[in-house]
Each structure stands twice: as structure tokens, then as C-alpha cells.
Amino acid sequence: MKPSFVSQATSALIDTAHQPRCTSDPSVRSLLCALMIVFSITGVSCIPASTTATGTTPTVVIAGETAIKTAADMNSTPRPTIEPFRFFLPTPGAEPISGWRPPLYPVPWAVSAYDHFYFARPIAADNVNWPLAEYRYGGVFFAPNIVHTGVDIDAEEDTPILAAGPGTVISADWGLYTEAPGNTADPYGQAVVLRHDFGYKGQTLYTVYAHMSKIASTLGQHVETGDVLGLIGSTGATTGPHLHFEVRLGSNTFYSTYNPELWMAPPQGWGVLVGRLTDEDGKLLNKSLVEVRPMPSEVPLRTYAEGAANSDPHYQENLVLSDLPAGLYKIVLNYKDKDLQFWVDIYPGQITYFTFTDENGFEVLPPPVPTLDFLPGTSTPISPP
Ligand SMILES: [Zn+2]
To answer: How many CB atoms lie within 10 A of CB 261?
Structure first.
């Protein structure tokens, strides 16, 4: 039985079908990878995912006098009155509960030269296959300064875990974090690592699949996208069955992860919000509270914590929110004890990129213009090291 220390206030949000996630035993505390959450005293369950939901898409409505006047009307009305335009700002509505997602864009998916949605989801579409809102990349959940280096995807025990892209199994054992094969105290539990057949800008790409109940692939095996690597479990540092999924670029190490939400293809018609928020010194804001409305979860976002999380080489972001239905969204940033807000459009299959600086406030930058040598979905074949 998983411990539950969720307050009354948040208990209403609990969906018992979505019980997460990473925690750890005090004995492995010093070893913790970011995916694992340390609890020194009681062991605390992660605040569970609220149910997934698609946001409504508010639209700007311009209402006016639309009655058509005939010539006779006009003649009899020397001074026609025109209703002033009324401009209704969109109001975020209730967040519907839905687990539905459109099919994903085909991989590799890249609308701009800087996109790299190269991976399919590691969980099939008949299950929840998107990141838990409470356990996003760059978050710190319990222990001080233990940063989450992947995303957690909720699933029932023994749900198949699928290869997110073609590659070779280079690790399939306990002991990934501690680099001690067979170490059953390792916080990743039973985990598989793929070295992919393609890379990005000359660097090798890896994906990590942790907490398996059973490994169903073998060292050296070549797999294709969608092949089963293992089954969902709760081995290692976790409070419940889920997949911890990482994307690593350049080297297969804990410190070379990037946000998987920038690497997994979005659902068709949906987009991704990416932000870079900095303070008066131009430093990235750490753990700043950001709300996006409507959003698929009641859980507010936070910018990356300082630590093992890495920003994308191009965007240098500290905030990513994927799986947003295209439409208009309000973003609220709590900065220096004030709630600052602005609006952004999310476009199908694209990244909407914004910055916040102390000096200039919010700015939304247009999508980057592809360079002449850009081909959508270009990936660089890499020969295995
Ligand atoms: Zn995790």
C-alpha cells in the first residue's frame, strides 16, 4: 500500500488510477537520481495526477449589431445607430476531464529547423501516454536539490513499455544509476537504455526506461519503434507503478538529459509551449510558479530547478508544457510577489516560444525561419561509438 500524505485540499484532485511516482528509500538517498524522490522520514506519495483533460480553446468573440437593414429601413432611419463592438476576452473555463488524445504526428516531426520531435511515445495510445503533470522534467518534488531528469508516465503494472525509436539495447539490468549491474537498491530499478540509430546534430541519442517489473529485451538487441522493451513496474525508488522516461544526448549519463517533452511527437492538432524566464540579472528563474490556463491539469507549472536539468541548445528554456490543444492560452507568472499575465497562441504541431525578462516582460517570438539547408525531420545518422 502506498503511503498517502495528501492534504484534504488536494485529495479531491486525486485520481486513483493515476498513482505516482518517484520516491526513494532513505538508504538510497545519497544516490538519488533526479527521477527518484527522497523521503527521509515518512516516505510520501507523490501528489497524484489529476485526471488528464483537454483544455477548452477559448476564442475571441466580437459581438456586434448584425441586423441587415433594408433600403427602406435606412430611409426611415436618418441616423442609424451602430452598436459598439464588444470585445470579450476569453475566459478560461472549467477543465473537462478527458483522456482522449488525437493520434500523434508521425516521427520524426519537425516544423522548424529547431524542432526534434524524433520519438514516439513509450506507452501505447490505448493508455495514458503523456507526462504526469506533477513530475515534469526539471522539477524538485521532495528532496532538496534532487532534480527530475525525465518525465513520469502513469500506467498499470505490467503495461508494455515500447521503444520510442529504433536502436540498440545497451543496458538492460538493475544498477543503471549506481553503475553497478544487478544492484537491486538502484533508484532506477530495472531499466533499459537504447542507443538510437539516429542522432541529433552529430550527437548520439539515448532513451532510458526505468522502474520495470520485467525486462523483455536483451543486451545488444536491435529494436524498432514500438517493440516491447519491458513491463511497467515499481522497481527502484517509486511509490507506484509508472515509467520514468529520459532522453539523453551526447552521452549516456545522468547529467546529459534533456526534456522529453521536446522530443516526443505531439498529438495532431496540438502544440508545445516553451519558455525562457529570467530575472533582473538575466539568470534563469528557478522553480518559479507559472500557470497556464486552460491547462490539462490543476497542477501549476514551475520553471526548472537548478541542478541536473539541461536546457535545449537552441531554446535555452526553463519551462516546457506539451500536449496543449491549439488555441489561446493565458500565462500567469508570479514574479516579485505579483501575478503577471499574458496570452499566447498555441499552433498545431509547433512550438510556441516566449521569453520573460525583468526588463522587457513577456515577449512571444515568431517561429524560427528554417535555414536553406533545413529539411523537415532531418536526423543525423550516427554510427555507434
Ligand atoms: Zn521519474
So the answer is: 21
Quote the CA–CA distance of 287 and 146 in Å, as a whole number: 12
Output 299-302 pairs: Cβ under 8 A, ≥24 positions apart. 299/47, 299/49, 299/50, 299/133, 299/134, 301/136, 302/138, 302/139
Distances (CA, A) of 384 to 198, 203, 233, 250, 282: 9, 10, 30, 12, 38
Whether the CB-CB separation of 130 and 290 falls below 8 Å is answered with: no
pLDDT (tens digit, 9 = 90+) per residue, 258-302?
A: 999 999 999 999 999 999 999 999 999 999 999 999 866 778 789
CA dihedral 299, 350, 114, 108 (to 10 degrees): 100
Please give the distance, rounded to the nearest whole angstrom, from the Cα atom of residue 38 to the centre of ligand 1. Answer: 12
CA 134 to ligand 1 center in whole angstroms: 10
Ligand 1 geometric centre to CA of 49 (Å): 13
Q: How far is the CA of 148 from the centre of ligand 1 (A)?
A: 6
Distance, in Å, from the CA atom of 322 to the CA atom of 275, rounded to the nearest integer, reads 12
What is the CA(237)–ligand 1 centre distance, in A? 9
Q: Are 265 and 98 in contact, with CB atoms under 8 Å apart?
A: no
147-190 tens-digit pLDDT: 999 999 999 999 999 999 999 999 999 999 999 999 999 999 99
Cα of first residue to Cα of last residue in the chain, in angstroms, is 44
Q: Taking the model in full, what pTM does it have?
A: 0.74
Bridge partners (DSSP) listed for residue 168: 195, 222
Tell me if the domain spanning 270-365 has CATH number 3.30.565.10.
Answer: no
* Distance of CA 161 from the midpoint of ligand 1 (Å): 15
Angstrom distance (rounded) from CA 383 to CA 316: 27
Give the strand pairing for 351-357 and 270-277.
Answer: parallel
Ligand 1 center to 231 CA (angstroms): 16
Sign of the C-alpha dihedral, residues 206, 18, 117, 119?
Answer: positive
- The CA distance from 234 to 23, in Å, is 10
Residue 220: other Cβ atoms inside 10 A: 9
Separation CA 165–CA 225 (nearest Å): 4
